From TrEMBL:
Domain of life according to the entry: Eukaryota
Keywords: Metal-binding, Nucleus, Zinc, Zinc-finger
Taxonomic path: Eukaryota, Viridiplantae, Streptophyta, Embryophyta, Tracheophyta
PANTHER family linked to this entry: PROTEIN FAR1-RELATED SEQUENCE 10-RELATED, PROTEIN FAR1-RELATED SEQUENCE 8
Gene Ontology biological process terms from the UniProt entry: regulation of DNA-templated transcription
Keyword match Secreted: no
Protein name, per record: Protein FAR1-RELATED SEQUENCE
Length: 715
């Protein structure tokens, strides 16, 4: 086993490394170019699983200590060379997850960082695509990496190599971006800035590598920058020195936070990371050092997404309405139909770049697993960002928000009860596309509002908000709310326009804990719940034993409403697929008010589909579909229509995915990472009660005794 000191071992363990053990090699190799034959093996060695991106432990804020800027502690450094145009430019230490638009940009970044510390770099190895000169990856290492070979031993030139392990590994990923996949910051030698200044790598630095301040405004942000902040004052909250920067740089996007908010953010994230190792956060800094955007998520919410990743809503109420805290919240629905938090962000503005950064940060945290359906508001930048980051997801607009925007844009007409009724009837009651379009056109003409430009724009986007257009999209009850309802904001009743950041984090934790307690109570009630059956239907009895209490009560209402379905008539047959017409009278029982619902039933697969799409919208079958099943002597709801997300017998363990158990047995860093994550799992599951704690403590104690016994036997 290699001799790795504790400090180095701890730092290395902060990254989930999917590398081979020979990465710790003796360093005798010269810079390599892999030929085509070696490409596949190289790609396997350097390929990182998506769940590596979920590692959060390397996001802890570090505070620079000016007394120890010797390069051994990985603090931010400043390159001050007037000739190359980088005077006073700070370079944060590289971290896993940083991305660059090109290989040259990544090389220049690490080169500039090394120059500020006082060491030089070289390309240890690189590899290209088969039968192509296109570079696929590279390892940049400290110039002191490795040792002299036997052939070089007789060379009288002064020995400069020390076997230093400091390096970064780069890999080409999607969209031609270059990602940092592995980082080692520790050096085993003192720095020699004067010698490094004359190295080949630093002679390559020129003014062209610097990205100007004005360029950062227009260039589309295509990366997630996982920068540690070097100091609280460096993130740009209005310190005296910053008031002297140019007016142009002041216009660069940044969070508009108070002076004390830097310490609030730092304190909250640091404490959360210490208390909950799987807490994840990431900060986005501009090239000038200003904090632009922030994202964070607690470990329980990360785990909840694994169960409820089908539908996610993005709530931008605070940001769009110019609240003091520019909050963006990711929301989901749990097995009780309750709103749950799936992450939070603070954005500097509502630009496309900010939303793309936030979405990519969230997706990285969720192990690259996008939702099936994502619901947003009508902001054009938000919609564009959604299309870019979640191209395969069903993107829909929040229907209640759309209805409210219509009422706000038609003037006094929005106060009219008659207009509201006509609007809601056109939107919610239309079963077919032509019905909706005719109803909308009649409404526009009848109320004389055809010239309102907002309505023209809204109508062009109708396929994203009108229910009739997305009957195949799963919503789990999130978007198709009843008229007058709105998508419930997680912090709706607790955060107001003047809520400060310090107040918000107290509210955040309190609301989150109340949400956990509410879910635990609902779990307990569902377990003990014995429903009072209201009908003799076998469907009601079947699902009373499966669904959680809240979902069953909603389904029970559909079973009760089966009595309003006065007839089921077969209208068409195409092999095993049969079309039925279900006639339903209104709740009052006036026979002349009868609605027709078309239901298609497939005998072979026991598949049933109603034109009302209740199953897609709400996650359970409607009364019309149940009537057709009953008509065909099917006395149980088919399994494909009992969603796992609503079941009360599913044991949901709220811990994030720990990734693969496959590790390289020769890699001590992977040993540490694997053991650390498993111990963290024991700690988290040992917290709910004293009984849990005692079992976890006893297990850890026994494990430690066994490990010490192995160590004694080895001696």
């Amino acid at each position: 086993m290699l001799g790795i000191d504790c400090q180095e071992f701890e730092s290395e363990s902060q990254q989930v490394l999917g590398v081979q053990g020979d990465d710790f090699g003796d360093g005798n190799q010269q810079p390599l170019e892999f030929d085509g034959r070696d490409l596949e093996e190289s790609d396997q060695v350097f390929e990182f699983e998506s769940n590596d991106r979920g590692n959060d432990s390397d996001q802890m804020i570090e505070i620079a200590n000016s007394e120890h800027l010797n390069g051994l502690n990985g603090d931010a450094v400043t390159v001050g060379n007037q000739d190359n145009g980088t005077e006073g430019r700070s370079y944060s230490p590289p971290v896993v997850g940083m991305e660059f638009s090109s290989y040259d940009e990544a090389y220049n970044y690490y080169n500039s960082y090394s120059k500020g510390l006082g060491f030089a770099i070289r390309v240890k190895s690189s590899w290209t695509k088969r039968n192509s000169k296109e570079k696929r990856g590279a390892v940049l290492c400290c110039n002191c990496e490795g040792f002299k070979t036997l052939n070089e031993a007789s060379n009288r030139r002064k020995e400069t190599r020390t076997g230093c392990l400091a390096m970064v590994r780069l890999r080409l990923v999607e969209c031609n971006r270059w990602r940092v996949d592995e980082v080692r910051l520790q050096h085993n030698h003192l720095f020699d800035p004067e010698r490094a200044q004359n190295s080949k790598s630093h002679k390559k630095i020129d003014g062209g590598t610097k990205r100007k301040a004005e360029q950062t405004i227009d260039v589309e942000v295509r990366t997630i920058k996982l920068y540690r902040t070097p100091a609280a004052d460096a993130v740009g909250y209005g310190s005296p020195n910053e008031r002297h920067i140019s007016e142009h740089v002041n216009q660069v996007t940044r969070l508009n936070l108070g002076y004390d908010d830097a310490q609030v953010l730092q304190g909250y994230f640091t404490q959360a990371q210490l208390l909950y190792p799987n807490f994840f956060y990431v900060m986005d800094f501009s090239d000038e050092g200003f904090l632009r955007n922030v994202f964070w998520i607690d470990s329980r919410s990360r785990a909840a997404y694994m169960y409820f990743s089908d539908v996610v809503a993005v709530d931008t109420t605070c940001l769009s309405n110019k609240y003091k805290i520019p909050l963006v919240a990711f929301l989901g629905v749990n097995h009780h139909g309750h709103s749950i938090l799936l992450g939070c962000g603070l954005l500097g503005d509502e630009s496309l770049e900010s939303y793309i950064w936030l979405f990519r940060a969230w997706l990285t945290c969720m192990l690259g697993r996008p939702p099936q359906t994502i619901i947003t508001n009508q902001c054009s930048a938000l919609q564009s960002a959604t299309a870019e980051v979640f191209p395969r997801a069903h993107h829909r607009l929040c229907l209640p928000v759309v209805i409210q925007s219509v009422l706000q844009n038609v003037g006094e007409l929005g106060e009219s009860v008659i207009f509201q009724t006509v609007l809601q009837k056109a939107v919610y009651n239309s079963m077919k596309v032509d019905e909706f379009e005719m109803a909308w056109d009649d409404m526009i003409n009848s109320f004389g509002i055809r010239d309102i430009e907002f309505l023209h724009t809204l109508y062009k986007e109708r396929e994203r908000w009108a229910p009739v257009y997305f009957k195949d999209t799963l919503f789990a009850g999130m978007s198709i709310s009843l008229p007058g309802e709105s998508l419930c904001s997680f912090f709706k009743d607790d955060v107001h326009r003047q809520t400060s950041l310090k107040e918000f984090f107290k509210i955040h934790d309190l609301v989150l804990q109340n949400s956990f307690k509410k879910e635990a109570l609902a779990d307990y009630e569902s377990k003990l719940f014995t429903s009072l059956l209201k009908t003799k239907s076998s469907y009601e009895l079947q699902l009373s034993e499966i669904y959680t209490k809240e979902i069953f009560l909603k389904f029970q209402n559909e079973v009760e409403m089966m009595s309003s379905c006065i007839s089921v008539t077969q209208t068409n047959s195409n092999g095993p697929c049969i079309t039925f017409l279900v006639k339903e009278r209104d709740a009052v029982g006036i026979t002349r008010d009868v609605k027709n619902f078309e239901v298609i039933y497939d005998k072979n697969g026991q598949e049933v589909r109603c034109i009302c799409s209740c199953f897609k919208f709400n996650g359970f079958l409607c009364r019309h579909a149940l009537s057709v099943l009953s008509y065909n002597d099917i006395h149980e709801v088919p399994g494909q229509y009992i969603l796992q997300r609503w079941r009360k017998d599913v044991k949901r363990i709220y811990k994030p995915d720990l990734g693969s158990n496959q590790i390289n047995i020769n890699n001590p860093v992977q040993w540490f990472d694997h053991l650390h994550r498993r111990v963290t799992q024991v700690v988290e599951e040992g917290m709910p009660s004293e009984g849990h704690y005692m079992v976890a403590w006893q297990a850890l104690k026994e494990s430690l005794d066994k490990v010490r016994l192995v160590a004694k036997e080895a001696c």
